[in-house]
Structure formats: structure tokens, C-alpha cells
Write a structure and sequence with these properties.
It is built from 11 helices and 12 strands. By secondary structure, the protein is α/β, with parallel strands linked by helices. The strands form 2 sheets. Strands 1, 2, 3, 4, 5, 8, 9, 10, 11 and 12 form a 10-stranded mixed beta sheet that branches.
Length: about 325
């Protein structure tokens, strides 16, 4: 007698009953770009990310409200300031654009779980994630205090969780100590623990205006060829106090997601980045693929690899179409 696997695939109901991996709204985190502008009706499309926008505070509130009405549980914010400087002061200013957005959303949507990206790249005039020397070298240790200040300011403004994405060594510990010192010991940190120097970030850098003006980020983001190094990076962040470990990007790094799942007891998040979004969107618009089917297959693959949470620009679309609940 041979194995008849088809017995459990015969009907849609039976396939759903025995399905091993599922996707729900509670797994998904939406990402929004908020821009500092005097135009309250500002809503600028991101050309390389069809369906994504840079919002004014008023328009952000409207967009988030529509998603909350459809079941959005959590979101992450990225800010685009009106002015940038070498120290990225907009990242930790009391009246910074992300701080203002967090305060608004916290007041308007008290049950929405707010996560803030903590980095300097969107706020520096040079586009790097840390302070730089006159020779263009990244000042790792000097940057830590500024990242910690940014994290504290975000939580004071209403963030439930902070997510440092800068990849400076020691930043999780610096942020943990700063939050604890200010009385925010219960605020979790979702660390971009394993963030690769990926070519898939291109559309995001257009959306956030964060492309480096010189050089690249390969001295502080990880080499895509390295697998074992990911475990060292994740272990360091876990020891420093990270509550959730993130892998970024997701699609080309499913092996890394699985490695973290098998080696750490902490929740694992995965970021389906802008390039992944753009490729699926572009192929779908050209009629080359069934966009929804490919999207769901990609997300299920990320979950199956071991991710507990997925950050994806598709979250809003999935909720609006009722594909996830």
C-alpha cells in the first residue's frame, strides 16, 4: 500500500481543516510614512510603491482610521522631517513629526498598538543611520545616546514599542537603560537584530528620503552572504534586552528566520520590505502573476519559516479586502 496524500486535499473545507500555517490580522503590522508639512491635505503617492503614500498628520489619521475600522491591530511609523541636519535632531526633538503623529494616533485610537522606528537616517542631511566623522566614518558609540533619546521621546509621545533599525552596536542596551531610567521598564523593544545591507530597500529610500548622500551602509548592516553572523547579532541583542528579534528583509532570508526560530525563545518578526512589495505589485499590475495569490504565498512562506509577526506594506490592502481578519 502506498501513501495517499490526496485524501486530505479533496475539498476546500478539508484542506483548511488540516492546514498547518495560517495568517491573521494579529500577525500583521502596517507601515506608514508621515511627513512634516503645512498642507493638512498632503497625500503624496510613492511612485515605486503603488498604493503607498507620504501623509500629512491629518491624512495619516484618516488612513489609519480606515484600517482600524477593518481590524488593524498594530502599525509602525516612519517620519520625514521638513528640515534635516548632521545630527538628525528631528529624530529626538520633542515636537518631531513622528512624536506628533504618535501623540495624535494614541489619542484617536487608544487600542491601536503603536510601534516607532528608531533611527537617524530619515533625519540626517547625509542619510546615514549614525553620526559621521569629517572623513565619512560612522561614529557608532556617539550615536547611541541620540538613539536612546529618540526612543524615550517616542514612548513619551505615545509609542507602545520601539524598534531600533540603525544597526549600531550596543544600541539595544543603550535604549533599554534609557527607557528603564525614565520609568518605561515595561516598554518592549523590537530590535532589527538581523538587518542585511540589501538592494531590496530602494523604494523605501525614495519614500522616506533616506538614501545616503555618500558611500553605503555595508559597514554597519550585514553582508547578505552571511548566515552564522545572524546568530551572533541576534544573541547580542537578546542579551542586551531585546524582546522581539526581527529579520530584514524577509523573502530572501527565510533560512535566517528559521535559524532564529530554532535558536531563540523570543518572538521573531520579519519585515517584507519595500522592494518585495514593489516587485509583487509591478508584476501584478502587468498581469504576469495573480497578485493576491502570490502575496499570500509569500506571507505564508514567511510564517512557515518561523516568523510570529510580519511587517508588510500589504497589511492595509489585506484588511480592506477582508483577506485577513
Amino acid at each position: 500500500m502506498f501513501y495517499r496524500g490526496r485524501r486530505l486535499r479533496s475539498t476546500p473545507v478539508l484542506r483548511e481543516m488540516v492546514r498547518e500555517t495560517s495568517l491573521s490580522a494579529s500577525d500583521m503590522i502596517m507601515l506608514y510614512f508621515v511627513e512634516e508639512t503645512d498642507d493638512k491635505n498632503y497625500r503624496k503617492a510613492v511612485a515605486s510603491m503603488p498604493g503607498q503614500f507620504r501623509y500629512s498628520l491629518d491624512e495619516l489619521e484618516k488612513a489609519v482610521g480606515k484600517d482600524v475600522d477593518k481590524g488593524l491591530r498594530s502599525c509602525m511609523l516612519f517620519g520625514i522631517p521638513a528640515h534635516k541636519d548632521a545630527a538628525g535632531s528631528g529624530a529626538y526633538g520633542e515636537n518631531g513629526i513622528v512624536q506628533e503623529a504618535l501623540h495624535r494616533l494614541r489619542t484617536k485610537f487608544p487600542s491601536l498598538y503603536l510601534i516607532s522606528d528608531v533611527c537617524l537616517c530619515e533625519y540626517t542631511d547625509h542619510g546615514h543611520c549614525g553620526l559621521v566623522t569629517p572623513k565619512g566614518e560612522i561614529r557608532n558609540d556617539a550615536t547611541l545616546e541620540l538613539l536612546a533619546r529618540a526612543a524615550v521621546s517616542h514612548v513619551q509621545a505615545g509609542a507602545d514599542m520601539v524598534a531600533p533599525s540603525d544597526m549600531m552596536d550596543g544600541r539595544v542596551l543603550a535604549i533599554r537603560e534609557a527607557l528603564d531610567h525614565k520609568g518605561f521598564a515595561n516598554t518592549p523593544i523590537m530590535s532589527y537584530a538581523v538587518k542585511y545591507a540589501s538592494a531590496f530597500y530602494g523604494p523605501f529610500r525614495e519614500a522616506a528620503g533616506s538614501a545616503p548622500s555618500f558611500g553605503d551602509r555595508k559597514s554597519y548592516q550585514m553582508d547578505p552572504a552571511n548566515r552564522r553572523e545572524a546568530l551572533r547579532e541576534a544573541a547580542a541583542d537578546a542579551e542586551e534586552g531585546a524582546d522581539i528579534l526581527m529579520v530584514k528583509p524577509a523573502g530572501c532570508y527565510l533560512d535566517i528566520i528559521r535559524d532564529l526560530r530554532e535558536n531563540f525563545d523570543l518572538p521573531v518578526a520579519a519585515y517584507q520590505v519595500s522592494g518585495e512589495y514593489a516587485m509583487i505589485k509591478a508584476a501584478g499590475q502587468m498581469g504576469w502573476i495573480d497578485e493576491t495569490a502570490v502575496l499570500l504565498e509569500s506571507l505564508i512562506g514567511i510564517k512557515r519559516a518561523g516568523a510570529d509577526l510580519i511587517l508588510s506594506y500589504f497589511t492595509s490592502e489585506l484588511l480592506q479586502q477582508g483577506i485577513v481578519e
